[in-house]
Amino acid sequence: MIKTISVRQTAIIISILLFANKILVLPSLLYEVSKADGFFIILFLLSLEFLILLMFLRLKSLYPSTSFYDILKLKFGTFLAKFFYILLAIYFFYKIMLLFNICYMYFHVQVYIDASYYIFIFAFLVIINSSVLRGIRPIARSIEFFYGFILFCLIFCIALSIANFDKFPIFFDSKLVNFFDGSFRHLFCFGDMLILLVLIDKVDSNNLLKSKSILYFFTSAVIILSVYFMFYSIFDYTAFLHKNAISDIITFSYRFIDLGRLDIIAVIIIMFLAFFQLCLYAYAFIECFIKIFSKLSVVYSMVVFDLLFIFIVFTSLIDYLVAIKIGVSIIPYLSIFLYFLLPLFCIFVKRGGNDDRFF
Amino acid sequence: MLFSNLEDKIDWLEKELNDSSDIASRMIEKGGDKLGLVFIKSMIDNLLFIEGVYEPLLLCENKLNVDVLTEIIKSADVNKISLKESVEKILMGNVVIIFEKDEQCLAIDIQKYPARIPSEPPTSAVLQGPREGFTEDIKTNITLIRRRFYNKNLILKDVFVGKYSNTRVVLAFLKGVADKKLVKEIESKLQKIDIDGIIDSHYIIKFLEKNPDSLFKQVGSVEKPDIIAAKILEGRVAILVDGSPIVLTLPFLFFEEIQASNDYYNSHIYSSFIRVVRLLSILISVIVPGAYIAMRVFHQNIIPIKFLVTITNTTRGLPFTPFLEMLFISLLFQILYEVSLRLPSYLGLATSIVGALILGDTGVKAGLISPPGVIVIALAKIALYTVPEQAYQLTVLQYLFLIVGGSIGMIGIVGLMIYLVVYLSSIDSYGCPYLAPFAPRVKSDLKDGVIMGTTKQMKTRPKSFKNHNLKRQK
Lengths: 359, 474
Hints:
Chain A is mainly α. Helix content of chain A is 72%, strand content 0%. In chain B, a hairpin with a 5-residue loop joins strand 9 and strand 10 (247-250).
């Protein structure tokens, strides 16, 4: 019997995943493309992310206890199902590398000025390995355990940043083409809801899934939008210089200077988020890997993941800059297929004698 | 077994008992009826033996047979048994009467041995509420529980464990409330224990735990009958072991330890505040030394400037690295703690003086350790004892966080926290998630979580584990 995760845990995972790669470096990257109108880009991209969530919910209602791999097999046959899973595995691995590099840069700048790269590799790999090997249920429960703390701290960071707020951001200062260009090029920071497709058979089927998922999604979306709003308000024309949005909006809070560096709250929260998001991505990668190579056990798949990760990190094959470069060049095309076309095909394409569940 | 006379029966019994020197036997002959009494001298109540058994036998004018003696012996616990069964009964402190002409024997339970009277346990002292605690005598402990339930649904089940000790272990639960499967599972686990002897209830804990190699406690241990009664009412199963004042409970959840019996006898607002303090104390005791060392070694830039100046001034010229200094102070405290536990009480004051003044103060003055280091460790060690039952596991965690904080800094501390929570989330206590009601969240059980509701608001039994009857009140 598959050990399922509860509706609340699924909703919390949705909420936690939504923060991935969005509240650190992305605000400044978006500012470079379309100035403060980056706020609308994030609004637009969050709406697209919401579409993926809706597609997941639709698929879940159509196939309550079938794995995504089986759905793909049913619709497209084994060969194509495996091919799509290879694409998903590549995508999840890229996300891991991106997240790892962004977090490494962030921690290095903020609190680990003299620390070695190996500390991060060691810390992340130990936690990812131990968590993934225990399964999705303990991961989901742990995220549920810390969720209140994470949410409280994020809200606290935004509340602290209000002390620095003195004017509204200048909107509509860039061309419409920048908006579309920025949206397309920064698709790589989105698509986190894809993990849900891999977890689809492990999510408890319940009537409340839809409402709770949407509620938690919007909670996170509001927090993300608040971070962008405060960031563009506080830094205005210098926003492109500040690469760590959530930290920077409180670091420069001169009113609290006597209390020391309050951005430590943001650092701790990003640590929690990074660990959980990496665990989820690694879990999704391993799930895909096991489906592709059906004879491999979880332990062997994990070893393969570790070796791949260590090789790429040690050879600097994908460092921070390379990850961003791949993200803005190749990943958007892959994203369009994986985020939208693949789930849409699964919903609309009818194939196989037993499959009569579609709109 | 066929015996021609009473002497043969007594000889056989004494041989079965290996001619142990504390075995006593008496023979009475009256009106042609012969009977023998066999018992262990040190295990019976002498006064009760003379007044309740021996004198009635001597004064009896009727025939001395099983039925007559059952009537005249002044004891509430008289049982007809076979000669074979009498060996076990004698070992349990019964006086066994053997008849020459009858195959049956009589076992009279007048067991007596030195036993403590119920007193307040040192680890569960209360300001308000019942003060009695369990003793080493299982009969007293059963009485202490029974008198809180004048109800036929309180069921006690006996299991005997230990090849040589043959220790009596009793399962206590409420019929119609506790999960039948849980009771059966515990009973079968107890029956499967193959060990030479059980000296204390802690001996069987490892047989009941599902992850026996884990650092974390997975079986509840309680010293007070009021707490046990409350746990039985919730649908848990209590396990009493003869010779132990610690009663075990199952299923056990991690957050049970932050609940104290005092919480239920005070205002729920005050109790909630105290529970928050306890939880904070756990965090302080486990994380603060590690976080302090992480900040000193890796993240000096996040320490507020005023603190940084103080720390820098007081740590200048120390011979140890920050990590070794903290480890040294921590070990010093640990040694003093171990010594104070085992030293006779009259030496306690001397230990305090040596510990606090000579080792602490002189250590700082000699420039071996720094005052901030002493303060951090002292705070962490004191905070440990707000939850004394978990002190040992928290101590280990304290050292783990210290090592991780000193080795890789803040990311190690956060990582270890996540590792521990993931690990604890994977533990299952007899079908109940170990971190419930927080992970997974069980909304109705949160009323007895950190923030407490009133007794009136706790309308249902815990849903974190299986109960047959969820309703507690209308």
